[in-house]
Every structure is written in C-alpha cells, then in structure tokens.
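Two proteins were folded this term; both appear here.
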Amino acid sequence: MKIKCIYSLLTLLLCGCATTSWQSDTLPSPLSGDEIAVNHSTERILEAREQILNEPKQTKVSAPSVISQGKTEDSAQKPLWPSETGIATYYAHDMEGRTTASGEPYDPEQLTAAHRTIPIGSSVRVINLKTRQQAIVRINDRWGGGGDRIINLSKQASIQLGFGSAGTVPVQLDVESLPSGAQPRARIQTLPSRIEESSAKNQSRLKICQNEADILGLTENFYRNHVTACLSRRE
C-alpha cells in the first residue's frame, strides 16, 4: 500500500513537470526594450503610409512658360525696311512752298522729309548719332542726295534733332510704319548714273530734271511732280 502511494505521487510529479515544460515552450518570451522600439517605429511607418494612400490626389499644375527678358513678339518680326545710317541735311530756306513729290507744298514747320526709296507716306524715326536726339518724320518727298547723304529733313525736324548751326549730322533711319499697300524692300537699291556737272551744260533742263527723277526712283505722278518742280527752280 505504501509503495503504491509513492508510485502515484511520482506519476503526478512527472506529469506536472511535462505540463510546465510544454507551456514554457509555447508561450512567447518577454520582449526586450529594443524590440519594443522597433515595433513602435514600424507602426508609425504603416500609419503614415495609410494616411498618404487615403489623401485625395492633387492635379499637377505645370509652371508657366518664361519669355526671355527683352524679347517680344514684335521684336522677333523682321523690320519693315532696312535700317540706314548716313548723313542728314535739311531743306534750304527758299524751298518753302515748293511742290514736293507727294504733291504737297513744302512746309518747314511740319515734321517731313525726302528720301530716295522709302515709300511716300511712311513714318521714319531719325536718330542723331551724336546726341541721340530723335524725331519721327513723314516721308512726302523724293531726294537723291549725293555721297553718303541719305535724307533731307524739314527745318522743324532739324531743330528737333539738334542740328544747331551744323548743316549736316550723322543719323540712323528706322522705318516705323509703311503706307497701306506698300511692300517692304529686301535691300536698298543702288543709284542710277547721275549726269555729271561737267556735262550738264550740254544737256537740256528737261533732261537734267528727268535724270533726277530717275535717280530718285520716281514713277507716274511722283515722276511728273518732280520734273515740274525741277523745271520751275531758279538756275
């Protein structure tokens, strides 16, 4: 009887040890401090990712195109007429009231000018290359000049450009506008041959006036107006 009790007690002890061993193997071990920190960091990353995924998507707006400074649509266009540089003069006092190539009488108080090829009715910006003074004149007459002279200005235009006592000044010409129907010219044409002063005595006055009109490139009414005005000049 005593032996049987001892055997039963040993059996209970062995079963208890086996149960304790199995529970210790299946239960998770306590986490260390580092492992807890890693788990918290992972949770924050997952929460941030979830927030980003749930945010409404924004439409991407492209940045406006930038136009280079100093460049405009107007400046990209070709000029209406070739720019010219040369010498400017102004009408003599006794030309007042004379008929110009446009049919208008010359008025020294108006901002007008004569040029060989720029279409009648064009507006031209004249720049004094010494002082940078400017004047915008209307072309209403023809003039061939001579040498490097390129434009003949009204008295008022010469005052605005600061001629002073000088009879000529170096200038730059830039065409601001052309009359309706006028075609821009690709280049400045060369002048036809001029009747030399030495042989002018052997030529009729009409021939000399026609030669001037040819040099000026005049046609039709402009040609006739110039010849008529030329024939009326005093010798």
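Next, the second protein.
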Amino acid sequence: MLTIRNVSKTYGSSAEKAVDNLSFEVKPGEIFGFLGPNGAGKTTTIKMITGIISPDKGDVSVGGIDMCKYPLAAKQKIGYVTDNPEVFVQFKALEYLNFTADVYGVSTEDRQQRIEKYTALFELDSVLNTRIGSFSHGMKQKLLIAASLIHEPELWILDEPIVGLDPQSAFRLKTLMKEYSSRGKTVFFSTHIMEIAEKLCDRLAIIHKGKLVFCGSLQQLREQQGGSDSLEQLFLTMTEAGMPDGGSAAAARHI
C-alpha cells in the first residue's frame, strides 16, 4: 500500500538531513507504527508521504501511484490527521465535513452515513452547527479524525493522534484503528506513547536522526536485541536516549 524508497530531505542550507535515505514498505490491512525521538524526522516523512512537501530524492508510492508524478491521484487514497488541528476555524463543523466530502467526491448518501457514524462515535453530533474556532483542542482533533475518514481512504495516516484526547475518546480511536485495519485498510501512525504502539502495531519502524534503525514486528525487534524487554525499553536502547542526569539508555532499562 505504501512504499518509501531511498527518500531524503534537507531543509535550507543545513548540513544535516532531516530524513536520510529512508526505505520501508507498509502492507495492506496492517497497523504500522512510526516511532522516533523528537526531531528524528517523523513529521517530515509524513509530510512527504502525504505530498505536503517533496523529497530531495527518492520515491513515495501510495497504492502503486507515485506521489510526485501523480499527486492528486495518490492523495485520493489518503486520509490524514495532522498533529496540529488548528484548521478552518471559521467553518462550522458540518461545513468542514461537507467541504472535505466535496474535495473527495463523496456521494450525498455516503457522506451523510459517515458523518452520522463518526460524529456520534466521538460525541460531536450535537455541535455540528458550531464554529470550529470555539472547539477545544480535543474536539478539533476528533473532528479531524471524522473528516479523515469521510472518503474511506485506503491509507489512514495519523500523526500523534492521541495527544489532546480524553481517555474515552482515545479508547474509541484505538478500537476504530483496529476495526479499520480488519477491513483491509492500512493504518499508519506516529506516536511517542510506546504502550499504545506495543499493543496496536502489527509492525513498526523506528527512525533516529533521520535514518531507519529498525523495521519489523515487535517480536523481530526482541529477537534482534536478544531479550523480551518492553517496546519502551527497546526504543530507549536503540535511540540511545539518555536519562535526564546523563545516564545511559541501559540504565533506563532497570526503571
């Protein structure tokens, strides 16, 4: 469903690459976690996958469609939840959902059914005629989630989707991600919450300083590292994430 091949990106005159020769594949019907420390290149990679920015070199393919050559066709296959929900704040919620449905050419019958389904799920059905600018961060996040599914995308991309959600909404989102992948759709999400990634992901990729350091299942990661540690402990080891007092990642494994 998604293929990243030898992708690199540098910003301005920086000597360091934000993303450095990144390659991996995401299969249909799986939940794929995309992990890395702050500044590792996760959001840059997601912006290249969604066509917001172009790679300096390399290829991004969505459902066999080259994002650089055929961006509109590739984007039709994607539903995207950004890490910043501050969008279209002058719209009313229903106006935004209908606008999104118009962009993707969703029929009146299908959009009505999906709007009812997802706004009821996230308890937004009572505020559909309220302007988005008056929403809390969590409500905006839930609206973006509903909008991202309005066209039933083949590839559902979520960048830090749990941030700002209350526990009930977070639980519903995780359940929805599982249900969506069970229908043969692909879920690709980034997160800093290792427990969520450990429970949800079929496979995952870890990047550090723009480079891929692992791609595979949690079991494969444990086998590679020679232990049965939690994903959090393995992540700390692989990204050399030191403790606040300068201690090593190895020390973090004993906390």
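Residues 90-152 form one domain. The chain has ten helices and ten strands. These notes refer to the second protein only.
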